[in-house]
Design a protein that fits this description.
There is one protein chain. The protein has 2 domains: about 210 residues, Rossmann fold; about 40 residues, no CATH class. It contains 8 helices and 7 strands. It has a 7-stranded parallel sheet, with helices on both faces. Strand 2, helix 2 and strand 3 form a beta-alpha-beta unit. The protein is globular. The structure holds NADP nicotinamide-adenine-dinucleotide phosphate (NAP).
């Protein structure tokens, strides 16, 4: 059973800090934004669609969190700089960047279009670099900061029909290690988290038979298939939750993360090690 309602962190742990979470309005990013705000951080949620970033801002504000939101496509380097400058000017600091925005879909490599390849690599890899580079001056000037990027585990072996995302996330891993060493003198800690399967909207969709299948209760079928997947494929016997990932982000943002840089934390219930 997931322990989503139990906090091991003390109240106000991240008070006074400011964090920017890309893609922080849905799925894993929303879970991260919610936990950081609950621990006292002012969270800025940045993504493309108001139905994500505005809805998340309202939800977190209603729960008493300090939060703001901004429209951002991480592929647009000039806009990324503008947003980061705006946040640092408004708050006077930027303690944490969470590179969580990503795009993904299954597609056979033989017929993957240049645009499809470009879209995923530009969001996942270029976006991570654009945001990391943009926060560097402010973090350097204030004497340090933290960057946490979201990777994956699919590239540890091979994952058919995912050439674009696996290549991009392998790049994110490389970037994490390189920036960690390069920016350690500025006391900027750079780490990544590699989540296992978290049933966000997109993942659930992949398990749901299409409407055209004519299956009367296709959502119940999806639930059954997902239960079977957890029992057979995830050694710890359950799917992950956004909170499982958010806990590690909060840990890394806290003083406990002070001597951690260049690490990639797999949080997946043992899934990739047991992968056939
Ligand atoms: P998700 O629900 O699809 O969320 C992706 C987020 O990224 C959305 O909020 C989206 O918001 C934002 N986004 C997409 N393109 C963007 C762009 N160009 N600029 C700014 N924001 C953009 O995905 P998720 O499942 O929570 O995944 C979150 C992260 O975990 C990703 O990095 C993913 O690769 C990684 N991950 C997930 C799993 C999993 O099982 N779910 C496993 C391994 C790794 P807008 O649409 O509003 O832009």
């Amino acid at each position: 059973m997931a322990s989503d309602n139990v906090s091991v962190f003390r109240e106000g742990l991240l008070a006074g800090q400011v964090g920017l979470v890309t893609g922080g309005g849905s799925g894993i990013g929303l879970g991260i934004s919610e936990l950081l705000a609950a621990l006292g951080m002012h969270v800025v949620i940045a993504s493309r669609k108001p139905e994500h970033f505005e809805a998340a801002r309202e939800r977190i504000a209603a729960a008493g969190g300090a939060v703001s939101s901004v429209a951002l496509d991480v592929r647009d380097q000039a806009r990324v700089r503008e947003v980061v400058d705006g946040v640092t000017q408004q708050h006077g600091r930027l303690d944490l960047l969470v590179n969580n925005a990503a795009g993904n879909f299954y597609a056979p490599s033989a017929t993957l279009s240049p645009n499809a390849w470009k879209a995923v690599v530009e969001i996942d890899l270029y976006g991570t670099f654009h945001c990391s580079q943009a926060v560097y001056p402010a973090m350097k000037a204030q004497g340090g900061g933290r960057i946490v990027s979201t990777s994956m585990t699919l590239h540890y072996r091979g994952w058919p029909q995912m050439a674009h995302a696996t290549a991009a996330k392998a790049g994110v891993d490389a970037l994490t290690r390189t920036l960690a060493v390069e920016w350690a003198p500025e006391r900027i800690r750079v780490n990544a988290i590699a989540p296992g399967p978290i049933p966000t909207e997109g993942v659930r969709k992949a398990f749901t038979p299409p409407a055209e299948s004519g299956i009367p209760d296709r959502f119940a079928v999806a639930d059954q298939q997902m239960d079977a997947y957890a029992q057979q494929r995830i050694p710890l016997g359950r799917w992950g939750t956004p909170r499982d990932i958010a806990n590690m982000v909060a840990y890394l943002a806290s003083p406990a993360g002070d001597w951690i840089t260049g690490s990639i934390f797999v949080i997946d219930g043992g899934e990739w090690l047991a992968r056939q």
